[in-house]
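Section 4.2 – Deliverable D4.2 (structural model, holo form)

The reporting period included a commitment to supply a predicted holo structure for the target in complex with zinc ion. Inputs used:
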Amino acid sequence: MGLKSLKLLVSIFAALILGLLAAPAFAKPAAQGLRVAEHEQRTRLVLDLSAKAAFATTVQADPPKVVVDFGDIDWAVPPAAFRRPTGLIRKVQFEPPARLILETARPAQVSKVFLIEPNEQFGWRFVIDLVAADASPPPPAASPAAKAKSAPTQAAPTQTPPPPAAAKTAPAPAPLTDRKPPAKKPVIAIDPGHGGADPGAIGASGAYEKNITLAMARDLKDKLEAQGRYTVVLTRDRDVFLRLRERSAKARAAGADLFISLHADALPNPAIQGLSVYTLSETASDSEAQLLAEKENKADLIAGIDLSHEAPEVANILIDLAQRETMNLSAVFAAGAVEELGRQVRLLSNSHRFAGFAVLKAPDVPSVLIEMGYLSNAQEERLLRGHDYRAKLATGLARAIDRYFEARRKTGAR
Ligand SMILES: [Zn+2]
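Output (structure tokens):
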């Protein structure tokens, strides 16, 4: 062995040792991303973590700040992650070795602080919700209809926020599985696409999309109500025209925890068939998805309503981080729906796609749009007109809904 190969060996060893030092086995949790969003009455900060982290929170009144001490953490959040004051949070600072300081505009309380377990899409997340110290606690939800979207800010009874007057260290909360979410049924909003003057797609033998979607919505409602675990609302239960934004507004007003918009497209090529699930994205996953979104978004033009003036608002919502968290949850539900529906019916290839559907733009309700199949395909049109096929779709969707809310319950979230 020459000197050259010895040098090579040494450098390989050195690389191996360095690699081991950097390997996850040794790694403490790293904070990799940070998002702050202002919700109705709370300011939510989310940290993306590479692993589970212990933490304790402290509230100080003068100057007002909330301090989060992590057991041990690496700070790898880009400085640009928090650029301007948002909600109650004026400034975010990391103080080595493991302290996160949130300077607040006024004295604040911690209304909720918890970790979210990793799922198919995301790793560990640390979430802290702040409310103004002088804010009165939101009233308890009386009925599903009265449920406000601020409900998630309500602190569990065991989690009294520390008084803002003096610095006080609160212990890290109990394991998430010990916490009981409110025993209230999740609200599912089902949105039968089109209606009234807008028939939607027209099938190979003349079926109207608006009728297929309404029939499916009713079947799914019956199925879910028979299970007794959900409160179900339909955005329309008859043949009426609704603006796209009215649909998501109705879902929000009902306090929906999940919004499912049902559609059935038609294409020039009658051979194409299969179901696909869409979620909102700033950029469409492909040109077909883009075209479909444009087509569905035209529903408002049919009734002569110009949506163009709403574009800047929609754009703002899109970049809002609250929307981003909702988009994450939508994607989680969509992934489960593709899997469960795939056991029941034929899927389009690449069955989870992304595009800018106006109907999915409620900033705080996880939402998906399901194209149940192609009415331009004679076989699928026949199937969608029949109760048996719709029963299969209802079964798949009900399982996907169960799966989604079970996972949500496990994290203590709703
Ligand atoms: Zn449609």
